[in-house]
Fold each of these.
Amino acid sequence: MSASSLVFPGHPELPLLQGWYPEGGDQLAQAWANSGGAGMLRLPAFPDPEELRLRLRQFRARTSGSFGLDIRGVLGPLRESLDVAIQEGATFLLQGSKLSDGLRQALDGCTLPRLASVSGPQEARVALSDRIEGLILEGQEGWQRWMEELRSSCNQSVLANVEGSGASLREWFARGLAGFQVRSPRTLRDGEGVFSEFRRRLSALGGASECLESRLDPLPRLRIRNLNLPYPVVQGGMGVGVSWSGLAGAVARNGCVGTVSAIGTAYGHPEGVKFVQGRPNGPQELNSGPALRRIIHDALENAQGHGAVAVNVLCAINDYDRVVREAVDAGAQMVISGAGLPLGLPELTKGSDAALVPIVSSARALKLLCKTWERKHGRLPDAVVLEGPESGGHQGYSPDQCVDPAFALESILPQVIAERDQWGSFPVIVAGGIWDNQDIRRFLALGAGGVQMGTRFVGTFECDASNVFKEVLLRSRKEDIQLMKSPVGMPARGVRTQLLRDLEAGTAPRVACISKCLVPCEGGKGAMAAGYCIADRLADAYQGKADSGLFFSGSNGYRLQELVSVRELIETLTGDFGLERLAN
């Protein structure tokens, strides 16, 4: 098999496929196609055919080169959009290694060539059985072994994913590669041969310089206790089953803090758990120690030594002390704890080097916590999360305070920083309503050491939530995200779904209180007053039950439009496309 015998979709002059997606339109794809490569346009989770038609016509007005559509994150109907893509001149599609039944049906009979992104020989074999025309080999390690295996098993185009410098990659054309997917501007800046030629062409285009140079100053690192993290981003803990080993491990692997939620772990690994009427019988079963240990182990393994894996443990859960000890014993590098003040956390983690990060909602709370920790335990927090009233799930504020500008995150941050300064220099990490690189920079400029983001990570392939959960958020509108009553007596924020309508009609599922999840619920009294059991309804969301599930979301959840990989999201949030800092 040789490069000359392979077919690269769209026949670009230079066999280079765009591999990163900066925000702000389709300019990079246009520049890429106009330079003789193959540009890429990513489709939203629920594409609208007429909006796509307008987008492609505007794109085509500026380029006649080759471009493909990335359909990996599509959840909704695709057939009409594929017809539009063909009519408007798209030249190929990029898919994942596995297709849902809906996507497979939509692609049946589609005449556009398809590339599949794969991360190993097994995924390659699955993709090859699905009538694709080309493979993109993710990562750099094992290419030679891959090529030897693929040489004898397929005649399709094979491209290699490129990260970092491309100077030493020329030999791979001789091994039969049809081209490269370029994932980092540095590859073009430092590469030779085809990369150098492509860089020259991009540089000659007006307005294309951002393809080669970052327009943003790099974000600072985040230092917490003995952890030196490449990026100042903490993924928020989301239960039940929204952030477990898949999401937390991927976030850590890409240089940030990935956070495992310790609540409801029995639903992820039910082996050996005692269930009654389909529910874990009591808090020890609900928050299963063996299940938590397995989730933390898998997250650390997925992290591959990068970033940090934290565990979020709610102070309000029954069996709090046990769960904290089990999380630390299982290897959690950080314990994040809120929903009450974790005044005894240092004693529970004694002998461990895990970083301790409490969650507070005011300077007063931070003062009480620091005073207690210093007096009783002789230590201070390694960092603190300041959670504002725009976050998803339970709020540390009254309903009136949630909409009062005096309690907005930017209003209370200076007070908390001033209180922190009385005790030390540990980072203040802000949470609630943080959405993009601009938000991150705004709060860092106000004195924050980092940001915590939860809802934004729901829109990733690796998020452990069900596709139903993701679909509920991706389809939500601004008016759908509301405050609601909670069994714990504080307001919570989530998506208005059938459950809330049933609560209003008095037809919601009955409260059984089998798992005894939260102390403030008082054995089901709070659940009876609110009309629902929070553990059961969150578990239903994890299991994909749209009618009875509870779907928490931050105030910006309606802004989710597409599914992306964790890596791509972190690249977008940090402005470090190719995550070059990880390689340094």
Note: The chain has two domains: 3-213, 222-574.
Amino acid sequence: MPADAKSYCWAGPHEDLNCGIAATENLALRLEAAFTGIYEQWRRIALTLQTQPSSELAHMPTMSTYASDFGVMLAWVKIVKELGAAPETTMVFCSDPWLFRALATLSKVTPVKAPSIRLKQLKLSIRGFIARSWVALRMISARFRLGAQKSQAPESANWILVYGHPNSTSDGYDAYFGNLMHDIPSLQRIMHTDCGFHRAEVLCRDSRSFSLHAWGRYSTAAKLPFAKWRPDVAMFDNAIASLVRRAAAIEGSGGSAAMTKWQMSCQASWLDTTRPQNVNWPWENHPWERHFSRRARSIGTKTGGYQHTVVGRHMYNQGADANADNLKSLPDKIILNGPAYRRDLVSRGVPENQCVEAGSHRIGGKNLPIYANDGPVFLALSNNPSFARQMIEAARPLANAQTPFLVKDHPLSPYPVDESAYFEHTRLPLDQLPPLRALIYCTGTTGLEGFIAGIPTLRFIPNGGVALDILPPQMQVMSASAYELATALKNLPDPGNQNETSLFPPPNIKIWRELLETETSKIGSLIDEK
């Protein structure tokens, strides 16, 4: 470090690249604050990119914070720009080749030696072509196995379009829409192309479920290895251009674009062939959903996007303001699981009269944990391995006879937990745990469930990335980084008492019947009655 450097910063997408700007400053909280502050900048960039044809295959131009870390990269640029304006000198370490080049363009930044970029670009490109080729082979196989379904699907019916969730069953129960197919016997189910043919064959045994793979074209599948986002960055400054190239290289290293192209092709053919009256799906405003909304509207099919899970202040892509064509890419109705997230959606340009509350099939009605002031602290690990490791490293030294910990890894992202004194690993569901003194989470809905149950809940803030905040505005909890966790556990908030059903009421079958059995234009009177 130079003699005149007063502090240091590791900037990058991984926590091992950043430890702190100075011993007295909390970099984790500063990164999250910067991430929150770049919303409008990302939105302007995203809306510009959406006008380019290949952008419909990408997640970054949709502002998808789950699928793209572009916002985190903008946050690092914002932080380093602020450091450059400060009177003291800060040494910044960055091993990411694209981010380094973005930082090097800033005023008052003196770059040293840039990390090599060509070899990394080549590796990602080769990996992406192999991944998309594998997608093509799988889609061809699925089309061959499931193609006969195309002639069996009814026309002018009402449908739910769903992912191949492992909890869905072949008797019509669906993880996203519960027992709607039992409650509405005429309702049909179409499976998203993320559902492989083995799973689709199981779920389609009920004669009312079908797979979109059946409407795919072999000619489209043959082109999938070449499906890729190719952004034009000529209109951006050098820093932003470098970060857009980074996003394209990362997304291009997998099969996501090929899957999106196949889904769009299959759903367009299905819509044109079956001419559904109504289609409802778990809405998150992904690229394929925007395409679906526009295509369905063009043929007169009514659409409803079910806000089936959480939205939260960091779900930047879920709003009309993230769409270049505004409301044209939204479903005719946004079906809310309750009043909890209405404010978030309306603040992002979704018209109030386009929202209807129909109840939650996934959140409300769950068995919840119990509070006890002498119980253990429950550590719910993130599905992000880096975040999970940080949580363990921060919590383990705090475990003692007075403050025992129960640790559970994410069921879909197992993480090895080495047990030690008063630091016990558990696989029990949340409602089967002993009464808890506190709950610490980072990502996922466990914090939401803890808060609803009235258990003092802490949100862990990791280094090197942003743990997306999925809580509604009226349900904010105390946040704590690794440096603050010990103090936070000594100053826990009082246990609460939330009215769960007022936030996430059970499904209202009357409203669902209206949504799935009548014209969308007739729903307004039902909303007014409610």
Note: The two ends are 65 Å apart (CA to CA).
